[in-house]
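Appendix B. Raw example, untouched.
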Amino acid sequence: MRVLPKRLFQIVLVSLLVAGGTAQAQNQPLRTAVDANFPPHAFTRLDGKLDGFQIDLGTELGRRLGREVQVDGTNFAGLIPALNAGRYDFILAPVTATTERAENLFLTEGYLFTAYQFGIRRGSAPITGVGDLRGKIIAVNKGSAYDGWTRENAERYGFTPLVLDTFTDATLAVVQNRAYAQLGGNTTIRYAAQRNRQFTADLVLRDTRAHWSLVARRGDTAMREMLENALECMKLDGTLAKLSEKWFGTAPEADDAERVAFPGYGVPGLPGYDPAPHTPRCN
């Protein structure tokens, strides 16, 4: 039997240990988290388990990556600090892609567009543009971005804001004819319409559209590319569109983020974007 020289033996041993460590790391669960009080994206069921669009998305990501995805339910404010501290490998909660976030984190391309949308009572005349708001009462939940929009634009467009404590209160104000429309996020408005037959989703303010991204630590190129590859494959085979329709009630349009595999890695036009072309590696 041939005996390896001592130095060569050490090199082979180290190589085996490194390879073993890499394989073990690749088999470790991916740790992530969601805001557990944001239906239909994530919420806690009566049995204590998490449910929602993000949970289904995490399950599908794990299936495609061949790794378990462990999801914590927590508050949104603590997610990014926990990611940067190494507690999580990526953030599964919907995160709006902004310049500030892109300067400090690695964002994937959007898997959904977040946008401002109006909801109206079923049977009411549709809103064709913001000019139709004149003389109307528009309900919003207090402290939200939509509350801010109505305060900034009420005088300009001639409507009256009705500011209420919760999103649900604003929906009920429309159903009960105390307000003509509710302004909220597109996914939550569509979800409310799915659950309340007297309420229907209406005009989307398309100029407010922004990417909702998965988030990795700044510099973690491998994690971002792995997540984005899985997302693009889910877009190309229609899985994301099906999840969207399941949770939000309507099929995405052809130019919605659920159906568009954007070029490069990250969000085009934002810091950290890598324009290098690539072809998704789908099973």
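End of appendix B.
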